[in-house]
Write a structure and sequence with these properties.
The protein is an alpha+beta fold. 60% of the residues lie in helices and 14% in strands. Among the domains are: 60-136, no CATH class; 139-202, Roll (Nucleotide Exchange Factor Grpe, Chain A, domain 2). A hairpin with a 2-residue loop joins strand 4 and strand 5.
Length: 217
């Protein structure tokens, strides 16, 4: 059998393993899986750039918040100092008329040498003081004639009396005061004690001394 040259050339082009795959040119674009793998690093880099940009924004916001907080802290600190310095301004303004009353009373007494006028001026000034302080919550403790209360009274002496029940406040030595409902200082008072009770206690005390002396002998 005689083979033709064309058949021989076709067999050589196929080769022993069958037809060869066409060669890819170096400049041809990648397709399929290779193209996806090549594009992935670019996507990751873009995502990282976005995250870095957001991180910078957050950092700038944090710096602004910190600066604003520092300014707020300094401003409120100054306001608190100023508030404490002028905390009693309203009270002092209210007390000025009472001081005027004192000065007028003293001036009048010096000119007239009138003792009654001096007392009248002092009483007026005292009432003004109490009215002003009452506006700010100061209240006197009414003690005389009431039952002794250790929460508001401080007994410094006793007074023998049959006209009052025991433990009745018969004299107010120094006034006590409340600021709203809080005790500022208790009233210093004298408390009644019946004469019979005092005599009985004295007798009991004398008998105890006699018994003690007899025991020693």
């Amino acid at each position: 059998m005689v083979m033709k040259r064309g058949d021989d050339k076709r067999r050589k082009s196929k080769g022993p393993g069958g037809p060869r795959a066409p060669r890819e040119h170096p400049g041809a674009p990648e397709t399929g899986e290779h193209a996806e793998m090549a594009a992935r690093p670019d996507d990751e880099l873009s995502a990282l750039k976005d995250k870095a940009g957001k991180a910078d924004e957050y950092y700038e916001s944090l710096l602004r918040l910190k600066a604003e907080f520092e300014n707020f802290r300094k401003r409120t600190g100054k306001e608190m100092v100023e508030s404490r310095r002028l905390a009693n301004q309203d009270l002092i303004l209210e007390l000025l008329p009472a001081i005027d009353s004192f000065e007028l009373g003293l001036e009048s007494a010096q000119k007239t040498r009138d003792f009654d006028k001096l007392i009248e001026g002092l009483e007026l000034a005292l009432n003004n003081f109490l009215q002003v302080l009452g506006k700010f919550g100061l209240n006197r403790i009414e003690a005389e004639g009431t039952k002794f209360d250790p929460n508001y009274h401080e007994a410094v002496m006793t007074t023998e009396s049959d006209e009052h029940e025991d433990d009745t406040v018969v004299d107010e030595i120094r006034r006590g005061y409340l600021l709203h409902d809080k005790l500022l200082r208790p009233a210093m008072v004298s408390v009644a004690r019946s004469i019979n009770r005092s005599s009985g206690e004295a007798e009991e005390s004398g008998e105890a001394v006699e018994k003690k002396g007899g025991a020693q002998r």
